[in-house]
Amino acid sequence: MVENNSTTNHSHHLDFDAKEDPQDSASPIPIDSKYYDDDGHPKRTGNVWTTSSHIITAVIGSGVLSLSWAMAQMGWIAGPVGMIFFSIITWYTSSILAECYRTGDPNTGRRNYTFMDSISSILGGFHVMCCGIVQYSNLFGTAIGYTIAASISMIAIKKSTCIRSSDGKDPCHGSGNPYMIFFGIVQIFVSQIPDFDKMWWLSILASVMSFTYSIIGLALGVAKLTENRAFKGSLAGVSIETVTVAEKTWGFFQALGNIAFAYSFSMILIEIQDTIKNPPSEVKTMKKAAKISIAVTTTFYLLCGGMGYAAFGDDAPGNLLTGFGTYNPFRLIDIANAAIVIHLVGGYQIFAQPLFAYFEKEISKRWAIVDKEYKIPIPGFGHHYNLNVFRLVWRTAFVIVTTFIAMLIPFFNDVLGVIGAMGFWPLTVYYPVEMYITQRKIPKWSRKWILLEMMSAFCFIVTVAALIGSVVGILINLKQYKTFSLSY
């Protein structure tokens, strides 16, 4: 190994001789605007379509698979209304959060590179610690949820192949843990990509995969509906004749958490916005991209959730694709499950990279030695890989821990509900609203202030209900589950 004396640049800034941040300096150092942005960062290249791709990758994830089940808990009235409610709230709060990318003037003010940077520069103080705990816990939980979802899809492919090869004679039971471990190993390698803005290709690939399995799931739902020759389901969802009132209530609340999870991406919106070129202004591009992305995903959600519920009724499975069995059309189902796995490889990194960057940045402030890199020659390519030992160890440990927890509590719908509920109000609603109020200097008790706070309060109630329902679901499942015994 050849030691590289240069260090990892976590802040993405140029290494100015004066050691000044161009945004902080009273006398900014001249920057060649042809190659660098106003903060010394190499020219950003993101546009509406790449930004939309990032958002769709973050939004359309494993959550879409649980929407038919959520519809079954809520019924034909509350289900679609719930999805539209979450989409409107997410779109609006994304729009006001986009205005917090820069502190002060939304077009020319100081840039904030992460969601936490925005909190720090606009709200500061106690909010920074609280938001950090919630945001990074949510990102951590999302990694766990994606590991569970990916393993379920790999299990489905394995079981389908096994049953076909044995002509249905072998029930093909086995442990699901090896598939979680395999997914974890893949993530260990992929997680060594050092910077979020170097992952554009992974994001686009993941977006294509998300459309692939969403369309297949929708098509299979339509086919199943045609086969049934009737719409299943009811206006109120699962009947209290088949479950207790308490189970119905908890299921309804848990469904809210599942829908909230399906729309969660606000915590990485600022990071995505930091990849956008200027001009036009980042705010304008992000607002347009958010509108396009949320409109597309909501359409998919309503179609996939609705068709799945119409096809299976109150018996809609927690994971839509598992409801179609392991036979015909087995190849199409296998393709959909493979697309899910590929998508979740990218989705995992979309959510994990901000956490990686934050932790590494904080550690490097205390111990500069962790930035040391070593040049590792790549045979046959004439290039080298910059190996950072700390990054290798820390990111590997992160993946191992998330994989371990996923194996410990592999409850797909319950885990998604908890993650969605934990992140919805604080990250999607409360902090964007509070930052917007502060940024725009909206007077207290003014009409706009009251409306914003009322929206925040209502969403808080929804979040608490969803969290309670999901936690109850986990507790119920834990009573019936043996540790590390996920099987198929």
UniProtKB/TrEMBL annotation:
Alphabetized GO MF terms: symporter activity
InterPro entries cross-referenced by the UniProt entry: AA_transpt_TM (IPR013057)
Domain of life: Eukaryota
Pfam families: Aa_trans
Record-annotated Amino acid transporter transmembrane domain positions: 45-475
Alphabetical GO biological process terms: amino acid transport; auxin-activated signaling pathway
UniProt subcellular location: Cell membrane; Endomembrane system
Keywords from the named record: Amino-acid transport, Auxin signaling pathway, Cell membrane, Membrane, Symport, Transmembrane, Transmembrane helix, Transport
Membrane-topology descriptor: Multi-pass membrane protein
Annotated spans, Disordered: 1-39
Skewed-composition ranges (Basic and acidic residues): 12-22
GO cellular component, one term: plasma membrane
Transmembrane segments: 53-71, 77-101, 113-134, 140-157, 200-223, 252-272, 292-312, 332-359, 392-412, 418-437, 449-476
Family: Belongs to the amino acid/polyamine transporter 2 family. Amino acid/auxin permease (AAAP) (TC 2.A.18.1) subfamily.
Function: Carrier protein involved in proton-driven auxin influx. Mediates the formation of auxin gradient from developing leaves (site of auxin biosynthesis) to tips by contributing to the loading of auxin in vascular tissues and facilitating acropetal (base to tip) auxin transport within inner tissues of the root apex, and basipetal (tip to base) auxin transport within outer tissues of the root apex. May be involved in lateral roots and nodules formation.
Protein name per the record: Amino acid transporter transmembrane domain-containing protein
Organism whose genome encodes this protein: Crotalaria pallida (Smooth rattlebox)
